[in-house]
Amino acid sequence: MKSTRKKSLVLICLLLALCLLLGCAQTSSGPQESATSGETQTDQEQPDNGTESTGKPEQVTLEFMAFAPETNFNDFDKVLEAVYEKTDDILNIRIHYTFTTIGEIGQKVSLKIASGEQLDLCFVAPWTNPTLNQMVSKEMLLNLDSYFDSPEYPALGKLFDEEYLRNNSFADASGEYHVYAVPFGQSFVNGNCLYYRLDLAKKYGIGEIKTLEQLTQFYDAIVENEPGMMPLCMNAGETVVALFGDVLKPLQTENHNYATINSVGVVVGEDGKAYAAKTWIPNMDTTYYSMLDEELQAQDPLYAYTVAREWYQKGYVTDDCLTQSDHEGQFVAGRAASFKRAVDTYNSINARLVSSVQGAELGCLPLEPGAYYDTPLAAGSDFKTWNFAGIPTTSEYADRTMGFLNWLFESKENHDLMELGIEGVHWEAVGEDYYKIPEGVDPAKNYNFYGYLLTWNPNYVRYLDTTPEFIVDLYKKYADTSFIYKKVEAGFSFMTDPVKSEQALMNDLTSLGTPLGNGMVEDIPGEIERIQAQYDAAGFQTIVAEVERQFNEFLLENPYEGQ
Amino acid sequence: MTVAKRRIRSSGKDTLVEVFGTLLCVLFALFCFLPLWVALVASFSNESAVIRDGYGLWINQWDLTSYKLIFDGTDTVLNAYGVTILTTVCGAALTVVLTAMLAYPITVQSLKYRNAIAYFAYATMVFSGGLVPTYIMMVRFLHLKNNLLVLIIPGALNAYNMFLMRNFFATLPASLAESAKIDGASDILIFFKIILPLSKPILATIALFASMGYWNEWYKVLLYIEEPQLYTLQYLIMRLQQQVDFLTSSLNPAARQALSFVSIPTVGIRLATAMISIGPIVLLYPLLQRYFIKGLLIGSVKG
Q: Which of A145, A210, A308, A388 is the most buried (most CB within 10 A)?
């Protein structure tokens, strides 16, 4: 009996060893096969006739990855089917879109690329973790220069002009700038606005607010007559100085030779060379200040901070601005009289406010200098978008993916199909520039794809027809390149690798200036010195020197043109 | 001769200490319960009322909107419930069986390389391959992507649990197994018929630990699962919470600018989802509590 037991044990061990070997043998065929064959999301019948007579390319399934608030967008599969119907003869692709969370998109994309899984288009951005810059320096993204300059992809070259692409190029490890991802944006300026309660402004005799003087009158009225309501509600991290700094400057100058790069103030002198301010508030560095335009030099360098202090003392800014996390929620619930957000959220804020507070009206005061002063070339932009899509270097279907993007940007119909949904079902056109939701469609269940994942472009924008005209005006101004001046740092991307450790220490100190910026500190000069000491201890001067060095190198190729 | 039973009279001081101690425990329990209660109340209240009047102990305006929104339309939540329950039950059962089968042989004196095996297990507690190699192994070599098994198998065997069990098995007298062997029982028979029935406390403890782990699993879903049908409950909540954190985080002003028009999920939905996911655990826990306590006391009293 013992010998049979021993024999059976030996047999089992041999079997296990065999299984191990079998497992190893299967890896070569692995992922590519399973990905392309098994993963068609929609139930399309496979075209059996294949590629022989029609000349159309072989069908492939492309893997795209982006993020979404829920597992999928409403009716997304229906829209994709409509896309396939239109493109089967020319493109013959199937798209499998995977959606993950906003916080993890960077991590998941890098994992997929590192493990060699099929990934043909992925969302990348300068704000994901890892950032676009880091992914480029690790050679994870394909160089897309050739696609924007080729007769095979005419729409790409037309819609993405050279200037737009140049400002959205990134430097690789050797310092050369190339297009590594397709930029998606509708306007070039944030379009920050102060949303306020227009009904309350009318009630206290101020009417529509167009200037800061009227705004302070409004806040005074709120403080006096509406106890318990916050005049200005800001989220933790926002400061009066940052929000109103640009419009608190009573003067707008013609030359904008200054910039803020990586929180360091930089100014370009007459000799074309850059100087980086050694103080954390650039205006306090006398050399920096002396290189600015004369009109600016006549002002008090701390003008914004003194105003912030006044506002805090008058009660416009409340103490809980340091811990607030949902300023919009407070506003629509009727607990705040104003807050800042970008102009493109007008419609949704209006809808929330009107349904929540009886008789409320939404007012909007633009905080961009160009719109505020209504002068062109007063608002600057580096023409960089914040959202991109890149093609990993491991992708086998780069051509097919770019072909799809080419089709997408070929005409407004194609573009609107992907961005807004099926015409007649999810939206109806109103003229060339507007659209509306069809009767009887529940907005909560309607197609809600995020345009900035794949489709945004300044040339193809449609506005909801309920948007007031002055808001559409603002949108158009912010997308108009002749209204905006090109910032001196347009096209430059700072490489943090040489100062990685100092940058990491500095990242922990970002909230130091918040109480000061909100006017909560009595002793302004003392506080500034204290913060400067802490910044210096974290290695601020090393970062300043590095910014100056890199920017000067950039200026050699892209000199300041006096804009 | 009968001995009269004497009642031990407790002195006044003892009663005082008892009352005081009980009061302290009750207060502590209430403090722990309070946030949960407030969250429950808020999840059943009207959203604007909560923002306007703050959180309270009683419902101001009864409103089922948050719950309706969650269960409406897609059956994502119900599906996630099913997946979570399935993985928890199967996972806990698998964990108990596998861990016991690894832990017991290590305690048997006659197994030749038992110390080496224990050492290998210990090494996994100290070293790990890292995220990318693990991901590559799961996806490329084991083909576990988008597969329910990835939520059950990798988390089943755990060196820590194994050592807990080993310590328990070591307290069982070796003479039990020896005498069974003399009578002609095989190793498998000894394990299933003699050792396991005596180990109920540790098995229940490990089952409980494992169930908690499986119920709260979201990281593996994040990494390996892309089909919405396979999402777990905690992943849904985590997704919602991450969305909110990312959008309101002050460390990401650039992201907030970029995503400036995405609306933030409301307070009500978040609380309702949280209530739904902890509901079963809170209701089940009192039933399993006595096993938990027994398990904690394992090995504390010898003999």
A: A308
